[in-house]
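Session log. Operator J.P. requested a structure for one protein chain; no other inputs attached. Running the standard single-chain path with C-alpha cell output.
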Amino acid sequence: MPRPLLRQRLDGLLGSPSPRPAPHRFASPRCATLRLATQRILSKDRMTKRTTITPKRRAEIFRDAGGICHLCSRKIAPGEIWEIEHRKPLALGGTNDADNLSPAHVDCHAGKTRGEIKIIRKADRQMKAHAGVRKKQPFPGGRGSRWKKTLDGRTVERD
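Structure written below.
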C-alpha cells in the first residue's frame, strides 16, 4: 500500500492527531514587526510576489476609494498621475488583495515608501541578528582586516 494512503487510513482509524499550536516566540505587541520579519525570512519565498495590476482592476480600486489619495485624503484630479499603493508593504507581510491596495499621489507614495524602507531594513537586521546570521569577518591579517603584519613580524593597525 502506498505510504500516503497508509497514512490516511491510519488517521481514519486512530483519529487524526490534534495539532498543537506553536508557542509564540515574540509575545509583546511591540514585536509584531519582528514577528512578521521572522516569518518572512524563515519562509521559502520571503514575501508575496508582486502581481501585474490590470487596467480594469486599477479602475476598480480607484472607484472603490472614491478617487481619493489614501495618504493625504485629497481628491486625485483628472489627468493627475497616481499610483496603486500597498497599505501594508509586501515586505512586511502585506498582500495583493483589494483591501490592501489604494490609489495615492506619486509624491505621497514616494514619501511613504522612503519611510517604510527604514522599517523594513531594521526588521531584516533584527531578524538576522535573532537567527544568528553574521556578516562575513575579514581574514585576520588579510587586506580587508584592520590589522596587518609587518615584515619583522609585528602586528600593527592599518593606516
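Operator note: Residues 67 and 120 are 29 Å apart (CA to CA).
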